[in-house]
Design goal:
mainly alpha, 61% helix, 45 helices
Length: 995
């Protein structure tokens, strides 16, 4: 007897054998029907070996209870004496509630699990046809089908058949079922059967001999009239037979359904006729079929009906399948189809989707099918409808690495086993991993995971899905494979000499060095090398499309050497093709962007983000920089963080500029060069302003804590104030301060000067980040004057001593950092000076013209070509800016639109005010934009600033590509520049000098 308060020994044994409800199990074992079994330890061991011992026991009780009295003893004695039968029956009952229901309804069907002959271990279509032979109607067909399914499930859960064999047996059972259904349909309509020859072509998983427990069976029907029959009537008869076959399998009866028969893969899908003749099929495929339809035909297999007609169909369509890869946009079409499937998965189910989600079964199948179609044109060993057989053949042929193939094979088998066991439980069509603890435990145990089934299952599932995702993206999902596929046979095995000749033909100046780079990038067995082997064929083409392919390849090697071990870089390389092309464009366009990229490796992620190339606004940048400064220990660390942000944003701006100028396959080049110039100027201005704000905050905190003894502001001047910075521009500034109430002026001045000295030092400390040079030479008295003044001092100076050039320089003044209110008062102070009431007098205009003429004579570098110098040359930046600024000083007091720091805005305002004619305004604007772009291009290409075109041929060509001039058009570019600036100079002579 059991002592009160203590568990019985049976209870403990049940726990040890994996029962989750031992109390309930005890009650079931005590039932009279199980009297002959309850004390047998063999039974408990067998129950404990099942996926769900509780479920198995409940199913067993139902089965025993359902037995006629004369059969019950036979069942129990067989159960105890025959281990193979015991393992099979209990294994099925512990894995499938639906098959337990079937056994309870048909209690004698357990006998289908007793036989254990050699043929029983490897049944084929003939054996299944024999099992279905007595079925004469849809109901009896369902019963017979489930009886056959019992044996398949038993072999599956007991491990007698591995997953691929199980899938093949399910496909063979489906074949036998389709044949039986067609026989029933023919028997119901003998006249129709006499009029036509009908063949059933299995597609999808059934055609591929890899069916699930519960899946649509995809078919195509092909028919021909019998000799002498009318084709139209024959097609009508065949359609009636086909429709009846579909209903026999698909409709729900008292015995449920078998599976839906889906004919939507036929020509024209749902809109097309259900049955066609062979010639009609061929006419459609030769003229109208889409790429995915040929991919679907890869698995076509004649399974039922007229075998001769079915064979003719397969023989006719097979050549079309292997020609599909020659179709235009073949690979993009296949990829688009895969992406559409993923996009249609409900967001809440993506993480549980075993078949269609990322890292799921479909990823393996699509990758294998694509490689089959690409390479199967010349290699018949790849012509298999079975995914695993095809994968093995791809590995044997060298199309897939053997290690990759082995990992994919293992992952695919595990995921298919999961799918089988999930569907087997209730025989429902689903590919979602369950969420309930009980379901996950049963699933894990069914796969042999017994220690901690749920945790082990999740771990293994995620591991295999990760392998699939990685390898699928490597083999298929990159939009680079079509470039590989376009290589003619043998190209991947070029000799070194032939490879060098090819690289030279592609525009590589040093093919020997290029081959060394390729060897360094592609050799080895690392994941990085494998990904780069996939990327390189198309990258070489993109590099060849630039002015300097050698620099692009060298840049890619440097970036890969620096970043190749970082997972996010490898993820970028697995991203959509736009990211890889963006990287190729940036690396082959010059030195600046690659240098910035190597200094800021994390910035490469920008190229893979659709929003990554959009500039960040000043508020966003200032918030990020000030937050970084606040977290830092000490001023140098703080400004280092700020300069790190600046470095990243410089790369973002340069990359966006290059990609917008070059254009990519996904994004055409920007057609408005003025928009590109404005974006660059604004982005760089916002970036430098935010960086200076961070430096001011860091210097103040280091020396004075939260509050400086004096209010302090930084005023942008020149291109900085005009929001027109280039990549090589310094930051022209003025510094202004105002002592706080109660603070001694000397103490305030000392603090202000210390701040100026410190921020200039911090922004130029030698580091891996580019310095930000602060130029204060436009201050009163120039280099001889104090670096920083009070607002009162500025007022006194400008009132008494200001020169014309200083008033002109103040046209670009705008507050950039520090105390906004103080900056606003400074702007208020200088407005009357830069926009004098009633405009400039004759003497002032004459002085400005004299200064401009002197500058043209004295400041143009010796030996420089005045027709090609972008800043001081004829029709260059200085010409346009001085002309516009003269209008601003003469008319700004009366025309509010002229009161702007920006050259193009002021020019547009002068035109709107009628001060400049339309043609003249357009000429000046075109010249200013072109000169600005040339300066930006020189910095991007050479990595250092310059005001004239490079002399090196490759650098000059790279500038031309940036400006939109293709190969061989450098001379045209230079001629265009001279023509445009000559016309601008003529306008300047008229408007500025009054010629």
């Amino acid at each position: 007897m059991t002592v009160p308060g203590r568990r019985s020994s049976t209870f403990s044994r049940l726990l040890r054998h994996g029962f989750t409800d031992p109390s309930g199990a005890e009650r079931l074992l005590d039932l009279p029907e199980l009297a002959a079994l309850r004390d047998d330890s063999v039974l408990l061991d067998a129950l404990g070996a099942t996926a769900d011992p509780d479920l198995a026991l409940r199913g067993l009780v139902r089965l025993v209870e359902a037995q006629p009295d004369e059969e019950r003893q036979t069942l129990t004695s067989t159960l105890l004496s025959a281990k193979p039968f015991r393992d099979r029956l209990l294994g099925v009952l512990g894995a499938s509630e639906a098959l337990a229901d079937h056994l309870a309804r048909h209690p004698r069907d357990w006998q289908a699990l007793v036989t254990y002959e050699a043929v029983d271990l490897n049944p084929g279509v003939a054996e299944f046809e024999q099992g279905l032979a007595e079925a004469t109607d849809p109901v009896s067909l369902r019963v017979a089908y489930r009886r056959c399914l019992l044996a398949i499930a038993a072999r599956d859960v007991c491990g007698t058949a591995e997953v691929a064999q199980t899938a093949a047996e399910l496909a063979d059972l489906a074949t036998a079922t389709l044949r039986a259904a067609l026989a029933i349909a023919r028997a119901a309509a003998p006249a129709d059967a006499a009029h036509c020859r009908l063949a059933v072509i299995a597609m999808g998983k059934c055609g591929g001999h890899e069916l699930n427990y519960v899946s649509d069976v995809d078919v195509i029907f092909v028919a021909e009239p019998v000799d002498g029959a009318d084709e139209g009537k024959a097609m009508q008869a065949a359609t009636r037979l086909a429709s009846h076959l579909m209903r026999i399998c698909s409709e729900t009866t008292v015995e449920g359904t078998i599976w839906p028969v889906d004919a939507n893969l036929r020509p024209e899908g749902r809109n097309g006729p259900l049955v066609r003749t062979l010639s009609s099929h061929l006419a459609y495929y030769q003229r109208w079929a889409k790429t995915w339809e040929f991919q679907a035909l890869l698995k076509a297999r004649a399974v039922a009906g007229d075998p001769e007609l079915g064979g003719e169909y397969i023989d006719a369509v097979s050549p079309l399948v292997w020609q599909a890869a020659e179709r235009e946009n073949f690979v993009p079409d296949v990829q688009k189809m895969r992406r559409r499937v993923v996009d249609n998965i409900p967001a809440a189910q993506v993480d549980r989707e075993l078949k269609l989600g990322p890292g799921g079964l479909r990823d393996v199948e699509f990758a294998v099918q694509l490689l089959q179609l690409v390479h199967g044109r010349g290699d018949a060993t790849l012509h298999s409808g079975k995914t695993l057989d095809a994968l093995k053949a791809l590995a044997a042929g060298g199309y897939v690495g053997r290690a990759d193939a082995a990992q994919l094979d293992e992952a695919y088998r595990f995921l298919r086993a999961m799918e089988h066991r999930i569907q087997l439980y209730r025989l429902r069509r689903t590919h979602l991993v369950p969420e309930g603890e009980t379901d996950l435990r049963r699933l894990g145990r069914s796969l042999g995971l017994r220690t901690d089934p749920v945790a082990e299952l999740n771990k293994e599932w995620k591991r295999h899905a990760s392998v699939v995702r990685r390898l699928h993206e490597k083999l298929f999902y990159r939009p680079l494979l079509d470039a590989v596929a376009q290589l003619t046979p043998g190209e991947s095995r070029l000799s070194s000499k032939a490879a060098g000749q090819r690289l030279e033909a592609l525009g590589y100046a040093d093919p020997a060095a290029a081959l060394r780079h390729l060897e360094a990038l592609a050799s080895g067995v690392t994941r990085k090398a494998a990904i780069q082997r996939t990327l390189l064929p198309v990258l070489l083409g993109w590099f060849a499309d630039s002015a300097d392919p050698d620099a692009g390849l060298l840049g890619f090697r440097k970036v890969s050497d620096a970043l190749g071990k970082t997972p996010w870089y490898l993820r970028l390389l697995r991203d959509e093709g736009a990211a890889a092309e963006n990287l190729a464009r940036v690396l082959s366009a010059g030195r600046l962007a690659p240098d910035l990229l190597l200094r800021a490796p994390e910035a490469v992620a920008i190229l893979g983000d659709p929003e990554g190339l959009k500039p960040r606004g000043r508020d966003h940048l200032e918030q990020e920089i000030l937050a970084a400064v606040g977290r830092a220990d000490g001023a140098e660390q703080a400004v280092a963080a700020a300069r790190g942000v600046r470095r990243r944003e410089l790369f973002r701006t340069a990359a966006a500029d290059l990609i917008g100028s070059y254009g990519t396959e996904d994004s055409p080049r920007e057609l408005d060069p003025g928009a590109l110039v404005d974006r660059v100027g604004l982005a760089l201005t916002d970036l430098n302003a935010a960086t200076i704000s961070g430096a001011v905050r860091a210097a103040v905190r280091e020396g004075w804590g939260d509050t400086l003894p004096t209010r302090f502001a930084v005023i942008g001047m020149g291109r900085f104030g005009g929001h027109e910075l280039g990549y090589g521009s310094d930051a022209d500034v003025l510094f202004v301060h105002e002592p706080r109430e109660g603070v001694d002026e000397q103490e305030a001045a000392k603090a202000a000067n210390q701040i100026v000295t410190e921020i200039r030092r911090l922004l130029q400390v030698p580091t891996a980040d580019p310095p930000l040079l602060i130029d204060a030479d436009l201050r009163p008295e120039g280099k001889r004057g104090p670096m920083v003044r009070t607002l009162k001092s500025y007022a006194a100076y400008y009132h008494r001593w200001s020169l014309a050039w200083e008033a002109q320089a103040l046209l670009r003044a705008e507050t950039m950092a520090g105390d906004r209110e103080l900056g606003a008062r400074f702007i208020e102070l200088i407005d009357p000076l830069r926009y004098p009431a009633e405009g400039l007098g004759e003497d002032a205009v004459r002085e400005i013209r004299r200064l401009k003429a002197r500058m043209e004579t004295e400041r143009l570098p010796r030996g420089a070509d005045p027709t090609l110098h972008t800043k001081l040359g004829r029709g260059g930046l200085s010409d346009v800016e001085w002309t516009v600024q003269l209008f601003q000083m003469q008319h700004g007091w009366a025309e509010p639109g002229l009161r702007t720091t920006r050259t193009r805005e002021a020019l547009a305002a002068a035109h709107s005010a009628g001060l400049v004619a339309t043609e003249e305004a357009e000429t000046l604007d075109e010249a200013w934009v072109l000169a600005t772009r040339v300066r930006n291009a020189v910095m991007l290409v050479r990595g250092r600033p310059g005001d004239t075109f490079p002399s090196d041929g490759r650098e000059l060509a790279a500038v031309g590509r940036y400006l939109g001039y293709g190969p061989g058009r450098v001379g045209e570019m230079v001629d265009d520049y001279r023509r445009i600036t000559r016309r601008a100079r003529a306008v300047v002579e008229d408007l500025f000098y009054g010629a």
